[in-house]
Amino acid sequence: MRIEDLETPSVLIDLDKMKHNIVRMQALCDDLGLAFRPHVKTHKIPEIAKMQIEAGAVGIACQKLTEADVFIQANLDDILIPYNIVGQQKARRLADMALFNRIAVSADSVTVIEGLSEAAAANEIAIRVLVELITDQNRAGTTVEGAVELAKRIDADEHLHFAGLLVYPSNASVRPALQEVLLQLDEAGIGVDVVSGGGTAAAFQAHEVPELTELRVGTYVFNDWTTVLNGVASLEDCAMTIRAMVVSRPTSERAILDCGSKTLSSDSIDGGYGFILEYPEAKMYRLNEEHAYVDVSNCDPRPKVGEIVHVVPVHTCVVTNLHNTIYGVRGEHVEVAWNVAARGRVW
Amino acid sequence: MRIEDLETPSVLIDLDKMKHNIVRMQALCDDLGLAFRPHVKTHKIPEIAKMQIEAGAVGIACQKLTEADVFIQANLDDILIPYNIVGQQKARRLADMALFNRIAVSADSVTVIEGLSEAAAANEIAIRVLVELITDQNRAGTTVEGAVELAKRIDADEHLHFAGLLVYPSNASVRPALQEVLLQLDEAGIGVDVVSGGGTAAAFQAHEVPELTELRVGTYVFNDWTTVLNGVASLEDCAMTIRAMVVSRPTSERAILDCGSKTLSSDSIDGGYGFILEYPEAKMYRLNEEHAYVDVSNCDPRPKVGEIVHVVPVHTCVVTNLHNTIYGVRGEHVEVAWNVAARGRVW
Fold first, then answer.
1. Cβ within 8 Å, pair B258-A10
2. What is the location of CATH 3.20.20.10 in chain B?
3. What is the third-level CATH fold of A15-222?
4. Does the N-terminal peptide bond of residue B301 adopt cis geometry, omega within 30 degrees of 0?
5. Is B306 close to A111, i.e. CB distance below 8 A?
6. How far is B263 from chain A (nearest CA, A)?
7. B84 closest CB neighbour out of A83, A247, A254
8. Nearest to B137 by CA among B233, B201, B58
9. Is the Cβ–Cβ distance between A44 and A341 less than 8 Å?
10. A314 burial level (CB within 10 Å; 0-12, 13-18, 19+)
11. Strand partners, A338
12. Cross-chain Cβ contact A256/B138 below 8 Å
């Protein structure tokens, strides 16, 4: 099938660029002696996870239980879920997964740990738990004192195994807190298997945090306009583009494309919703569900109705999650149509 | 099944509230003598479209061809697509649909009209085309002069039928332009079957635009935090809530819920990403893909890890489109699990 036969909007993945991204991040981790654990939330496609494993990754990270389910069904069996699994139903499901697969999970509170312990006890296993330390992302995670306390508690629980520490993102700023926790755990005689860091931008600072043993990175596989603006990828490294069409030119300054927030998501950066490769001077300044508003006043020439353009999205992980199928392309050919198998798996 | 057996996050639709919304909007249109054509992009579920038809709607609006496909398969056969269908492949598909169904489509340029005409000629039919007039939304659409010219062109084409005018949103501000086009078409001896307006907020101004003959409204069926803040619905009218869980309480001021942008979308209003019914003082100030950041500093008491909350989303149409299944509930019971059949249908 040729790309020109695809309808618009469609999500294209340049296979050569993706391969290059996979090889490059694996090499970065290999050079630093870090285990590499790609985060599959970016693509949600088992076939791509297998390419990452084949390139040298030790396993994968999944953000939710049902996302992990899909990859387990596809025979990926070393999975870290860097998320608090809360509630009896979910904890039991996790414990069932851990019966036949190598699973680890993070926790940042006693409530989470107690639920995991109970579910593990019911299955007569020990679940591997990493303690999440807070970072300047100010999201989930606990303090230095909290982390030490939780690690001790996990270590003392026969149905849990303390598997290490987890941070997101693992910027250099997290190092002092990480060092303090490691020191206190060493004094307490508690071994730390893994120090897991994450984030595509943070990966390029990993050499400044030698405490890390593992990296979880997702976006790098495709890259997007955000990684470009953050200086960790070039436009050439962006494997994902959205093939879209100009469907209206209501004024000389404005073009409307057929890729709206149901195609690109509403994620924006610096007031922009995507970068149009054919019209670098254009500004995609607003989205409705099926319309992209583009200011083309700085473009010469300006696009016509019916013209095809390619958009580098702001945030690749949320784009994949909107589509049932995305297309791997090389040159003018569609070489593979992937089912986004874990799309919509939010719990 | 009981609601408490559903995992979090799940999308719930209060069946009584939805029914009330359907009846209320139909009554508003009936009172004004307007044909009512619900926009199914909000729910993407044929079963709900059939409830809307049963309540008195004349047909439905679909935003894209493949969305319309799903509803045609479900035997809904009076469909308006208020969108420019561009390109030979899509125009042919539309012409095929029009062979066996009552289909109308909008257009705002000669390019679009020429493509439709060619496809209609190949099928030896006439496609019904409405001309889209620009509004202060400044999206697609043409000027007064452009609309008159396009209407004449459609009227003169044996394979097209001029079906009327279309605006979005149909606020009172559009009236002068609408009157001018109608006057000029009258002078040219061109009949206007339909003047189609749209928008949930605009519906409540429809009495100020007596030129309208039809309304396309989507969000009203569920309502959301935006329609509440716009003053066209109360919290009681919000049929959609997201059942979510507090998964982390990293600080005394912050709670993390398990509904992120892959559950709620990134659409925001006034810096907020959703309204938490149990904690009206809370502010959901940021989303990552699977995390909602909530400032609970004004809440007393404050939520605990493991607690269930219900979130009224900012924009219901983009929420439905993220989920494969949403749940119709009454009291404590899940009465129906709907497949979001047209989810992801973006072309």
1. no
2. 15-221
3. TIM Barrel (3.20.20)
4. yes
5. yes
6. 7
7. A247
8. B201
9. yes
10. buried
11. A326
12. no
Per-residue pLDDT tens over the stretch A213-269: 999 999 999 999 999 999 999 999 999 999 999 999 999 999 999 999 999 999 999
What's the average model confidence in pLDDT over A1-7? 96
For helices A88-100 and A65-73, the axis angle rounded to 10 degrees is 20
Mean pLDDT (chain A, rounded) = 98
Residues B111, A306: C-beta atoms closer than 8 Å: yes
pLDDT value, residue B119: 98
Q: Give the closest-approach CA distance of B259 to chain A in angstroms.
A: 8
Q: How far apart are CA A195 and CA A280, in angstroms?
A: 41
CA distance A327 to A274: 19
Query: Which of B114, B137, B145, B247 to mutate to probe the A interface, most A CBs <10 Å?
Result: B247
* Chain-chain contact of A247 with B8 (C-beta, under 8 angstroms): no
At B25, the amino acid letter reads M
Q: Which fold has domain B226-314?
A: Lyase, Ornithine Decarboxylase; Chain A, domain 1 (2.40.37)
Nearest beta carbon to residue B83 from set A266, A290, A324: A290
Chain B residue at shortest CA distance from A286:
B139
- Nearest by CB: A248 against B89, B108, B250: B108
What is the ipTM metric for this complex? 0.97
- d(CA B139, CA B126) in angstroms, rounded, equals 27
Of B64, B90, B322, the CB nearest to A290: B64
In chain B (347 residues long), the average pLDDT of successive 10-residue segments reads 96 98 98 98 98 98 98 97 97 97 98 98 98 97 98 98 98 97 98 96 96 98 98 98 98 98 98 98 98 98 98 98 98 98 97
The dihedral sign for the CA sequence A323, A324, A327, A328? positive
Q: Which chain A residue shows the shortest CA-CA distance from B88?
A: A306
Which pLDDT score, from 0 to 100, does residue B107 have? 98
CATH superfamily, region B15-221: Alanine racemase (3.20.20.10)
The encoded tokens of residue A37 equal 């654990």
Residues of chain A with CATH 3.20.20.10: 15-222
What is each CA distance from B153 to B91, B129, B130, B191, in whole angstroms? 18, 11, 12, 13
Cβ within 8 Å of residue B119, ≥6 positions away: B88, B91, B92, B94, B95, B127
Question: Where are the domain boundaries for CATH 2.40.37.20 in chain A?
Answer: 226-314
d(CA A297, CA A302): 8
Find out whether B245 and B276 touch, Cβ atoms under 8 Å: no
pTM of the complete model: 0.97
Q: What is the pLDDT of residue A125?
A: 98
Distance from CA of A189 to the nearest CA of B (A): 26
Confidence at residue A57, expressed as pLDDT on a 0 to 100 scale: 98
Q: Are A87 and B290 inside 8 Å of each other by CB?
A: no
Instruction: Please tell me which residue of chain A has the smallest CA distance to B93.
Output: A7
Instruction: Give the single-character DSSP code of A181.
Output: H
Distance CA A43, CA A316 (A): 8
A114-135 pLDDT per residue, tens: 999 999 999 999 999 999 999 9
Contact check, Cβ <8 Å, B245/A10: no
pLDDT value of residue B18: 98
Q: Which of B248, B304, B316 to mutate to test the interface with A (most CBs of A within 10 A)?
A: B248
Question: Distance from CA of residue A255 to its chain's centroid?
Answer: 32
